[in-house]
Design a protein that fits this description.
Helices cover 46% and strands 18% of the residues. The strands form 4 sheets. Strands 12, 13, 14, 15, 16, 17, 18 and 19 form an 8-stranded mixed β-sheet that branches. Strands 1, 2, 3, 4, 5, 6 and 7 form a 7-stranded mixed β-sheet that branches.
């Protein structure tokens, strides 16, 4: 029903104020209370004066949304009864109360005084029904025995309408659209309207609350672009209700104006007519058949477009029916039919595609990593030869001295060790979203950032390396090799590479090539020189951002290239004091202060006596102090070719 509310707001008020079925309101408002200075209920002689005043002003019919069920003073009741008798066309409000006891609940009709009915007044129940979301939409007809206030007015006017509980009010517009005069001004004949304002018109009298100017300004400024889907529940004694316009303007409407809108719809005979249950079922069945046809030969983008287009057409069509023919067709069920049909067609198509996808994935997984297989399935063009330049992080690992170890054990045992080692390391690589490139003997090559992008690829590669080394230590304890212990070296580098399918037209593999791949391989082998486990390049270090324990280790010249690169050791924990002292010594060493650097490395070694890089730099410092460089010291130790 919220779509109906939105449509009503978009349509706005279509009935001109000059042709409001000759209905006006006399409001019992705060201004009247201030001017009259009387507590409620007002003396009935006052209401009698109002009736006489309206008679003199030419009113056709008076509808009083006030319940006069209790006796007042005989004088007051008589004064009002005489006024009713003189006017002749008065409709008063009745009410239905539910009296509850421990055993039963009974409805009790509260009617006006017999004296008023004998004087010629008729009555109708002035209840205002609200839907489950607290919005007034439906006409209240009363019961076959007791008419509603509006139906009682129609009877007075000699108008007959077919009773239909489904029909809804065709609201003139938002709150405060129907012409209104404060109660006290009618008594004093003090209003700024033309003399014909009340002539031959139905005058509705009732409580009328109008928001303050400050509140209206506040609502229009704060809630201008907000929707208000849940109005407050009606409160007994507070005659204010939410209409479909509440969703847009957040304003309640006085009960007397709700009655005026209901009466106006009945007089104009333009009530909103929903489809009957049978009509709605036939409509939804035909709609489902049509949707099934348009969702054949499923293509995601095509079918999304077709269903969205159909939804838009349906919205426009239903809006035109509502505004031009006063016919309301259902929203929830058709939209649910569109959604279910779309989803079921998609699921059916997906199951067929997924079955084929699983078959292809099983075939690809025999020679491609899961990530590459998924990428190929998403983009089959990736199967073509060639590549593209991407930013990637490459990891090389190698078992230290495994060639010598393999010479001392049986080939079957070598295969068993490598299988277990490769399996454990591959699991860790996949855990951190890496792509397994290849196994080369006891070496592993893995990639992050290709073929699937990874915004934090360097960090993921380093986490994988640390966990691989941790697993390697436990694995070395589990694999018993006489007089030998397995260990592993890892090199990591980040940079621009060519990534893609490399090979021949008949056979190819996904891999990466380039200088940065070679640097990662070189870093792995440099671990042997420095006695370290994990070395990383400067670009990898820059992307870690201080999230892991890393120490600067050296400047080196890569084999075959004149360019120097800075290398770092990725450490599994480690004291910050130790790292700071080591790096102080390194910077002294790089600037040629070998004696001071020597002392710093000794100090670092006292904190970590097993640190091999500190021992290496102590040896270098001793050598350079005894044999100073002949040329200007560059801070780079030249490795033999």
């Amino acid at each position: 029903m919220k779509i109906y509310d939105i449509y009503t707001c978009i349509r706005g008020g279509e009935v001109s104020l000059e042709n409001l079925d000759n209905i006006v309101i006399v409001g019992i408002d705060e201004e009247s209370f201030r001017e009259m200075k009387l507590p409620w209920p007002w003396p009935r002689s006052i209401h009698g004066k109002l009736i006489k005043a309206l008679k003199n002003l030419g009113a056709k019919l008076i509808v009083m949304d006030i319940i006069f069920s209790d006796l007042s003073t005989p004088r007051e009741d008589k004064a009002m009864a005489e006024a009713i008798k003189q006017f002749g066309g008065i409709v008063l409000a009745a009410d239905i109360e539910i009296v509850r006891t421990e055993r039963f609940a009974q409805k009790v009709l509260i009617t006006p005084l017999k004296e008023f009915l004998n004087a010629g007044a008729s009555y109708g129940v002035s209840s205002i029904p609200v839907d489950t979301d607290n919005v007034v939409r439906h006409i209240f007809w009363g019961s076959p025995e007791i008419p509603s206030l509006e139906v009682a007015v129609l009877e007075k006017l000699g108008i007959s309408r077919e009773r239909d509980e489904r029909k809804m009010v065709n609201f003139i517009g938002p709150a405060y659209q129907i012409p209104y005069v404060p109660y006290y001004k009618v008594l004093r004949n003090d209003f700024d309207f033309q003399e014909e304002f009340f002539k031959n018109k139905v005058v509705m009298v009732g409580k009328y609350s109008r928001p303050s100017r400050e509140l209206v300004t506040d609502l229009s400024s704060k809630d201008k672009h907000r929707y208000h889907f849940q109005p407050p529940s009606p409160v007994r004694g507070v005659d204010m209700f939410a209409t479909p316009f509440y969703i847009m303007d957040n304003r309640l409407t006085p009960g007397i104006e709700i009655h005026a809108n209901m009466l106006s719809s009945l007089i104009r005979n333009d009530l909103i007519k929903p489809l009957r249950a049978v009509e709605a079922i036939v409509f939804i069945v035909l709609l489902s058949v049509f949707l099934t046809i348009i969702n054949l030969n499923w293509r995601p983008l095509k079918n999304i477009g077709l269903n969205l287009l159909f939804t838009m057409i349906y919205l426009i069509f239903s809006y035109l029916l509502l505004t031009r023919q006063s016919l309301f067709i259902p929203f929830a069920a058709p939209f649910l039919a569109i959604f279910i049909n779309f989803v079921s067609s998609g699921v059916s198509s997906y199951m067929g595609v997924e079955k084929k996808r699983r078959y292809l994935k099983r075939a690809f997984s025999l020679y491609l990593s899961p990530q590459v297989a998924d990428k190929v399935l998403e983009e089959p063009d990736k199967l073509k030869l060639g590549g593209q330049r991407v930013l990637a992080t490459v990891l090389f690992s190698d078992l230290a001295d495994f060639t010598k170890i393999s010479e001392k054990i049986e080939p079957e045992e070598v295969v068993s060790i490598l299988t277990r080692y490769n399996t454990e390391m591959t699991r860790i690589i996949f855990k951190y979203n890496g792509t397994l490139d290849k196994f080369v003997g006891d070496a592993i090559m893995a990639i992050w950032g290709a073929p699937v992008k990874d915004e934090d690829q360097a960090f993921h590669a380093c986490l994988a390396a640390l966990e691989m080394q941790g697993r390697m230590k436990t694995l070395a304890n589990e694999i018993n090799i006489p007089d030998q212990r397995l260990s592993m070296r890892i090199g990591i580098n980040t940079g621009s590479v060519m990534a893609g399918n490399m090979g021949s037209e008949e056979r190819f593999d996904f891999t990466v090539i380039g200088d940065n791949v070679n640097i990662a391989s070189r870093l792995e082998s440099l671990n042997k020189t420095y006695g370290t486990e994990i070395l990383i390049g400067e670009s990898t270090y820059a992307k870690i951002g201080g999230r892991l324990t890393i120490r600067e280790l050296d400047w080196v010249r890569v084999k075959g290239k004149s360019q120097l690169i800075k290398i770092f050791e990725l450490m599994d924990g480690g004291e910050k004091l130790f790292v700071d002292i080591f790096e102080e010594g390194l910077h002294l060493y790089q600037n040629g202060y070998f004696d001071a650097a020597h002392r710093k490395f000794i100090e670092a070694l006292k904190i970590n006596p097993m640190d091999k890089p500190s021992k290496l730099y102590i040896e270098r410092c001793v050598y350079l102090m005894n044999s100073p460089p002949q040329e200007r010291w560059s801070g780079v130790w030249e490795f033999p070719p």
